[in-house]
Amino acid sequence: MRILSMFLVVVAVAQSKCGAGTIVGTVIAQGPKVPTEATGGGAYGSRRYKYVEKLDYASLRDFVVNVVDYVVPVNGALDTKIVQRDATFEPHVLPIVVGTRVRWPNEDDIFHNVFSMTETQDFNLGFYKKEKVPEVRFDKPGRVDVFCALHTNMHCVILVLPNPYFALTDAKSSYVIKDVPPGKYRLRAWHERVPSQTKDVVVPANGVVRVDFSPGVAELQKP
Length: 223
Prior knowledge:
Elements: H1 2-17, E1 21-26, E2 64-68, E3 78-81, E4 83-85, E5 88-90, E6 93-97, E7 100-103, E8 112-117, E9 122-128, E10 135-138, E11 142-148, E12 155-161, E13 166-168, E14 174-180, E15 183-190, E16 197-203, E17 208-210
Parallel strand pairs: 1-17, 3-7, 6-12
Antiparallel strand pairs: 1-14, 2-13, 2-15, 4-5, 7-10, 8-9, 8-11, 11-12, 15-16
């Protein structure tokens, strides 16, 4: 294991000396192909289904785009935070690299109890207001769903990733991943509500490469 870690460090250093590229693009989800009746009218006009909320795929945000199958050792501790404000976790989705410490400040005047039962990282911070700011270090890659034991709608997702080459999409569904070592990689677009989509990308030593994604349930309908 130690030899592997040393090898990865040498590779990372060697690649960094060869320059680095930038990956840009957009992520716009695609909804499933459904019968005309399923999009409106019909049974949806009845009292039973009149107020059923249908998912608007085009409005989905908080996509995470990341380089997969590439491990980079963490040098030093990294810090970030998820704030509890108005009985909501902000941000709702937080991508981080392995080894990051996440602080959990409570800015409300009511108690919260932050916890997770995820196999990747289980923890329970107990009841607190503003008197303390607990923190949790995430040392294993994977998805971590976090809740509040007191408030039903409080939920956020932490994606613990094996390298720092990732980005969260902005309000225009765009993303930018900078300083990626040159080479061929698999790139993934992830969202909590739709299947992930992966594409191959070749990153140049200098310059920009564009990769657009259109993940969605429609991918599962292909024969």
